[in-house]
Amino acid sequence: MPATATATLPQIPPCDHRPRLYDGPSRDQVLAQRRANVNPAVFTYYREPLMIVEGHMQYLYDETGRRYLDLIAGIATVSCGHCHPKVTARVTEQVSRLQHATTIYLHPTLPRFAEKLLGKLPAELDTVYFVNSGSEAIDLAITMARLYTGQRDVIALRNAYHGGVATALGLTSHHTWKYPIPHGEGVHHAACPDPYRSPFSGTPEEIAEQSAEDIRELIRFSTCGQIAAYIAEPIQGVGGTTYGAANYLSHAYRIVREHGGLCISDEVQTGFGRTGDHYWGFESSDVVPDLVTMAKGIGGGFPLAAVATRREIAEPLAQRIHFNTFAGNPVSMAAGLAVMEVIDEDGLMENARVVGGHFKAGLERLAGKHSLVGVVRGQGLMLGVELVRDRETREPANTETLAVMEAAREMGVLLGKGGLYGNVLRIKPPMCLSREDADFAVEVLDQALSRAAE
Ligand code: PMP
Fold first, then answer.
1. CA nearest 151: which of 229, 257, 230, 265?
2. Best residue among 135, 424, 426 to mutate for probing ligand 1, ranked by most atoms within 8 Å of CB
3. Which pTM was predicted?
C-alpha cells in the first residue's frame, strides 16, 4: 500500500464563519449551461470543475458548504480577504447611493483615493489615472511613454505576462498566450534574469548583469537606438514567480535611460504589500520607475487598476481627448480606498512578510524531501514551487503539477499554476493568511507531492 494511503489527512484550521445555505442550480446544471453558452476560451481548473458560491477572508466555500483554503485569491487579487467586512460595507454603502456618473462630474472619492495611493509612492510619481483592468493600465502606460518620448520601441522581458489586449499581448512573452494576430508592434523581448532557466551562466548576480546587458544589445540591433520604454514585473507572476538577483533592475534601468527610455514597473501582482518587505516590488531593488502599473490587489476583487507617473509624462495625453467610461467610478473608488485602509489597519504587509517567510521555509523543507521540487521561489505571500522530473535536466513536470493540484484540492487547498510549461505551483493567497493555514498547506502539499510522484 502506498505510504500516503495510510497517512492521516491534514485538518484545515478552524473557522467560525457559517456559510449560507446554497439553494441555486446544481454544479452540473451550471457546468452544462456554461458549456452551452459561453465562449470555450473561458476555462476552468480541475478535472471536475469546482463551483464556488461564498467566500470569507482566506476561505472559499463550494455549493455543499465545504470550505477550502484559498491560496490563489482570484489570481493574486483578493488582497484583504474575501468579503472583508470593511470593504463590503463601504462598497454596499456606495452602491446604494451612486453607482456611475463618469469623470465628467466631480466626485469626492476619486481625488481622495488618488491622494492616498500617491502617498505610498515615491514623491516624483505625483499623478494617477484610474482604469478598470491590468491590461488597460499596461496599454495606457505604453501610450503615455510613446507620447512623451516620441519613440515607438518597447523592451519587455521573455517569460513576462502583461495582459490580453493587443498592446499587452504583444508585451506578453509566452507562446501559450499568443494568437497569430497582429500584436507587438515595436516590442522586443530581452532575456529573463531568473537564473533557473537562463541562457547565461554564473552566479545569480552575474546572470542578472548579463541579462541587463542583453537590453543594450537589443536596443543596438533591433531599434533606432532610442526607445520609448522598458517594462518588467519585479517578480514575474504568470511566468512562475521568476525574478533576477537584486542588482538586475538598477542595471537594466540605467541602460534603458541611457537610450532615452522610460522605465515601467508592472506592479499588478507585486504591489500593495504582497511581497512583504515593501509596498511595491521595485523597492526591493532600490530603483524608482517612471511609470507604475497596478491592478488586482488594488481593488481587492473589484475591477480597478491604475497608472501612476510624473505629471510631465502624463501631460501629452491631454493633447487629445482620452476617456474611459467606467474608469474612476465611485464604487471602484470606494473599494480601492477601503482596501488600502485595510492593508494598513490589519497589518497585511507585515503579515505577508512574516507568514510568507514561515510558509516559504515550510516549502523549502518539502524541497529537501521531494525530488519533484526543482526550486522554491518568491517573497512574502508571492511564492512559487517549480516541479521537475529530474533536478539535473530540469525537465518540467507539468502533468505532475496537475496531479498535485488535484490532490491538494481533494484535501481542501486551492493552488494556482504558472510558468511557460505549466509546472510551477503558484501561491498568492489573501494576505490575511495565518501561520496555521500555512502549516496546513505545507502538510497538504507534502502528501500531494507524494501522491503525484507515485
Ligand atoms: N500585468 C500582470 C503582471 C498580470 O499578472 C496581469 C494579469 N494576470 C495583467 C498585467 C493583466 O491584468 P488583467 O487581467 O486585469 O487585464
1. 229
2. 135
3. 0.97
